[in-house]
# Entry
Amino acid sequence: MGDWFRHTIVDTGRLPLFCFFAAMVLGFVSIRFSTRMIRAGVRWWPGNVTPGGLHIHHAVFGIGFMLLGGIVGFSLAPDLAGWRAVAAAVFGLGAALVLDEFALILRLQDVYWSQEGRESVTAVFAACAVTGLLVLGVFPENLTDLIKADDEGGIAGWVAGIALALLNLGLAVVTVLKGKLWTGLIGLFFPILLYAGAIRLARPKAPWARWFYHRPGERWARRLARAQRREKRFHQPVARLGDRLSEIIAGRPS
# Structure
């Protein structure tokens, strides 16, 4: 395990990224534990910070940690890998605190324990998934192509790399608009998923379905009906499983 960590993380220069990832995961688990203790009314738990009766959301502390970690990380010399890793960990902790209140920031309402508050959990899971792939050395395919084009030089390589990157980015946007967030996100690393996600039917409540499947005509009505059948047969059982996992980690919405 030690050899794997040294060869895969340390020797490749990804130690700061690993520290960012670990701090973000631990920070999210810790803050969710704290908020669940506060929600349960555990009197001895000193979770709430309310000076003068003003409740300070933990996203405020998260912004502070991100500023501290970012400023220190940018100011350190490249050869100070250990201190840069510490700064990355501080930044990761701040990112966890901010993302845990993503839904509040998005809606400018305190929806932390409501159904809309699940958007915060999704944001954290998405950030952890992407960062975890990067830690393991899995990079977006188009980024790899652009790095190769930069190393080899030549206009043709750059044009091909940029064109393919724009194509995959467009497919990712279509996939997300079809209601397949995870397919679009992971597809940036494994482009074959983007082609499948962009071609297949949209989920019935996705923006793509609202724009196209509710048009007059038998063709669109058939597509909407097929999308609804697939949603009931495949997506809803997976969504229920995801909801249970989310409730175990983050607590059940009110």
About this structure: The first helix runs from residue 2 to 10. The chain has a mean pLDDT of 88. Residues 139-172+183-200 form one domain. Residues 99 and 124 are 6 Å apart (CA to CA).
